[in-house]
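[Q] Does anyone have a clean structure-token version of this?
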Amino acid sequence: MGNKGAAISFLRIAEDGGLKPNTTIYSMIIDRLCKDGMVDDGVNFLVEMNSKGIRANVVTYNSLIDSLCKHGKWKEATGMLREMVDSGISPDVCTTTVLVSALCKQGMIKKAEELLEGMITRGVDPDIVTYSALMKGYCLQGLMDEAMRLFNAMVDRGIHPDNYCYNTMIKGYFKNMKLDEAMHLFREMPLRGLKCDIVTFNIIVQGLVQIGRYTVAQEILNEMQAARQIPDPKTCGLLLDGLCQSGHIDEAMFLFHMMEKRGLRLDIVKYNVLVAAYFKNRTLDNARDLFTVLPSKGSCPDDRTSLA
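[A] Here you go.
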């Protein structure tokens, strides 16, 4: 059943064999079509179901709504929701989450929250995934007060925020240059029994580097290693560049050697950053020494290395 033809064949063979297709069979076919990217064919099968008096269920509609949203057809998806409700089928938390996420991606945050509130009124309890999607939408638009309001509303409903929720909020605060709020949430995580993971640390370090707080970023990197979390090359590269740009050459070299020790990938870009910093600080011997070891490290100097 990997394509439209196989799905139709399955259905027709079942009919020819005297097996009357039911909701489960149609829902399986529609789901397969949707997963294969043929949502229009899935909608046609829903029409066929209705014409034969076979009642669709929430699973049938969820497959179609999810696929419509993934194809950017959020208007058709909301229309499908109305059809679903008009047919007396109650949306569930999956329906809500898919639509909320789709509307947020379109920048329609208020409409997404209205949908969420409507679902709550109908007795559908949103879960952490639903709230996370809406919080992320507010964060992307820089509406951090609204995002925090949702965060608190989620907690008030007895839903405990997870790492993804915290990471979303912390990243949003950094993006909007709100360091204190970001660091407060970072320090709050252990108090809620959450262990900061590699994603959390990377967000913190990258955020601090982007606002020029290199020393604090170095401290967080040290915490990260103490917690046995290995930073990724991108994070270290950003910090390395920041330390060099701000004249903290010794700290940059210490970080550089740590990256070597950890086996993190050191490409020519990172070598160029250090060589340029040494030239800028007129420590030419160090720049020359670093330049000469490049071949033994598996890196070839490029134009920028030579011009540094």
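[Q] Thanks! Anything notable?
[A] The chain has a mean pLDDT of 83.
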